[in-house]
Each structure stands twice: as structure tokens, then as C-alpha cells.
């Protein structure tokens, strides 16, 4: 059984796509997943499964649609993949606050054109680095006012994506080791 981080996109943000984490844990447990736990209220789940990450993503999307009547995209990373994300940490020497450092998890790599747009959107001291299926972004003046963060959270990337701050990423990694 592999430990997986399951990331639901756009859950419990600004009163939209409400999913109670206890109900989500119960639904996932009832669906046969083991050792289900959640982190915070924003769709971060760690569970054990013998299925592939891709299959778990598809199954959880269907489960959320049926149980909560929501069309939510789901991305999944194995413990090993999440460990690599943390190990890489390409902006670690620049970052001063883990809450302003985000990792955007992508369904697949973005196009070269999108990557050029990201670099252009980064203003001032902001930085963005692309590695595989992740984007690392440092927003020293805050995420809420960042044009880069706004671009990354919309449909401009051309692929399904969901962002987590560094504190959440490292907490999820720790949870996958439990």
C-alpha cells in the first residue's frame, strides 16, 4: 500500500465548493482507502492505496461528484514524488516566509509559451521556477496582490493545477511518512 497525497482543487475557498473534511474522510474510508487523514480545511488528504496515483485521482473525483455534488479536479502525488518536490526546493535560498512560497502541482508540464508568460508575470522580487509537474513561486509582497499568483491560479496554465504553500507541502510530506 502506497502513501499518497491527494490534492482537491478549489475546495472551501471563499465559501465555494464546501466539503467538510470529516465527511470527506468518512467517504474515502467507505470507498476502501486506508489510513485517511486530512490537513487543514482546503482539500489536503493523505491516504493509503494499492492503486496508482492516476487511478486514485480519477476515483476521488468521481467520489466527490457523487457524495458532495461537486465537479472538483484532483491531483495526486506519491510519497516519493512529494519528497522530491521538497528535496528540490529551488528557491530555498531566496524564501523568507514559507506562507509566501507556493508549489503549484500540475497535471502535466505546461507549454513553453505558458512558461514565458509566467516569467513575464513575475514582478519585482517574485520568482518562479518550473521543474517537471511543479511550479515553485516566491511571492515576497504577498500572494493576494500578485499578478503571477493570479495567473497561476486561473486557467492560464492550460493544465489542471492546484497550489499549496510550503508549510502545507512539508506537512503533507510528513503525514505521508506516518
Residues in helix, %: 25-40%
What integer is the average pLDDT?
95
Total strands: the figure is 8
**Strand residue percentage:** 25-35%
Q: Could you state the order of secondary-structure elements as H and E?
A: EHEEHEHEHEEHEH
Report the structural category. alpha+beta
Give the N-terminus to C-terminus distance in angstroms.
13 Å
Strand order of the largest sheet: 2-3-1-4
The CATH C-level name of the largest domain is Alpha Beta
- Tally the helices: what do you get? 6
Per CATH, what is the topology of the largest domain? Answer: Alpha-Beta Plaits
Low-confidence residue ranges? none
Properties at a glance:
178 residues, alpha+beta, Alpha-Beta Plaits, four-stranded antiparallel beta sheet, 6 helices
Structure, described:
This protein is of the alpha+beta class and 178 residues long. It folds into two domains: 2-80, Alpha-Beta Plaits (2-Layer Sandwich), CATH 3.30.70; 82-176, Alpha-Beta Plaits (2-Layer Sandwich). The protein is 36% helix and 25% strand. The chain contains six helices and eight strands. A four-stranded antiparallel sheet has the order 2-3-1-4, with helices on both faces. A four-stranded antiparallel sheet has the order 6-7-5-8. β2 and β3 form a beta hairpin. α3 crosses α6.
Amino acid at each position: 500500500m502506497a502513501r499518497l497525497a491527494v490534492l482537491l482543487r478549489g475546495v472551501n475557498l471563499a465559501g465555494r465548493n464546501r466539503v467538510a473534511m470529516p465527511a470527506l474522510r468518512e467517504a474515502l474510508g467507505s470507498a476502501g482507502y486506508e489510513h485517511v487523514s486530512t490537513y487543514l480545511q482546503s482539500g489536503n488528504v493523505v491516504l493509503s492505496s494499492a492503486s496508482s496515483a492516476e487511478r486514485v485521482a480519477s476515483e476521488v473525483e468521481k467520489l466527490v461528484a457523487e457524495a458532495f455534488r461537486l465537479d472538483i479536479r484532483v491531483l495526486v502525488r506519491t510519497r516519493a514524488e512529494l519528497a522530491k518536490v521538497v528535496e528540490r526546493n529551488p528557491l530555498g535560498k531566496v524564501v523568507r516566509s514559507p506562507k509566501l512560497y507556493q508549489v503549484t502541482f500540475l497535471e502535466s508540464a505546461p507549454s513553453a509559451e505558458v512558461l514565458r508568460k509566467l516569467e513575464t508575470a513575475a514582478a519585482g522580487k517574485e520568482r518562479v521556477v518550473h521543474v517537471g509537474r511543479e511550479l515553485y513561486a516566491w511571492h515576497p509582497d504577498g500572494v493576494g496582490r500578485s499578478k503571477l499568483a493570479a495567473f497561476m491560479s486561473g486557467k492560464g496554465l492550460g493544465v489542471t493545477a492546484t497550489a499549496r504553500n510550503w508549510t502545507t507541502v512539508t506537512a503533507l510530506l510528513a503525514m505521508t511518512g506516518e
